[in-house]
Amino acid sequence: MQTPEAVEVVTGENAQGSVIWLHGLGADGHDFEAIVPELRLPGDTFLRFVFPHAPVQPVTINGGMAMRSWYDIVSFDSEGRADRAGVLASSDRLEGLIAREIERGIAPNKIVIAGFSQGGAVAIHTALQTKHDIAGLMALSTYMALPDDVASASCRKDLPIFMAHGSFDPVLSMEWGRLSADKLIDAGYSVDWHEYPMAHAVCPQEIADISHWLSAIYS
After folding, report:
1. Strands 56-59 and 65-68: what pairing?
2. Helices (H) and strands (E) in the chain, counts
3. Other CB atoms closer than 10 Å to residue 188's CB: what's the count?
């Protein structure tokens, strides 16, 4: 089980929980580093934010150019948008990060896994399949990479799930996100779904909603 290098931001001494947050295609662990102070979490909520770097590998849709990517994307359709072997390998990396947080003294039920775009797809898959009883899943501007695997999901049905998408997203259609949320709901999960008038990004209202959701998780 590989553990990728990561950027870490701690909001206070003696962290009571951890948020492991995966970036999108072509970015790196610094991508969401600056969002932590913008969350304006309560002063007594001390968290460790872990922002791992994806491995550098060729990406088919970008002409085979090597970049940070959690898995290969062959095409922007339901068949080619996720390389199964790559998704599973990155899920294994995320499992390694979960295990490391547990070794550092964070209980599984105090660990949130999160991701944006491609990173969100890995976060969804891992949340459904992990053996650990995690605190929640946050999936932003993303989709289920391996939707058929929801049938074998082992996580609890009351897992807190926050999903958000931009209604003007030109990269990943909001329909992909909505269909993925519906798939989870049909499987018995409850999804806290949010839509924002934005492109493939995050916006102030979304950050405020994430803050509210995380505060509730760690209250």
Report:
1. antiparallel
2. 5, 9
3. 10
Q: What is the CATH number of the domain that holds 101?
A: 3.40.50.1820
Q: How far apart are CA 15 and CA 55, in angstroms?
A: 27
User: Mind telling me the catalytic residues?
Assistant: 117, 169, 200
- Note the pTM of the prediction, 2 decimals: 0.96
Separation of alpha carbons 69 and 54, rounded Å: 5
Spatial distance between the Cα atoms of 120 and 142, rounded to a whole number of angstroms: 5
Locate the DSSP E strands across the chain: 6-10, 17-22, 47-52, 56-59, 65-68, 111-116, 136-140, 161-166, 192-196
1: in domain:
no
Of 44-48, 96-100, 111-115, 150-154, give the lowest mean pLDDT range: 150-154
- Average pLDDT for 90-116: 97
Domain count, the chain: 1
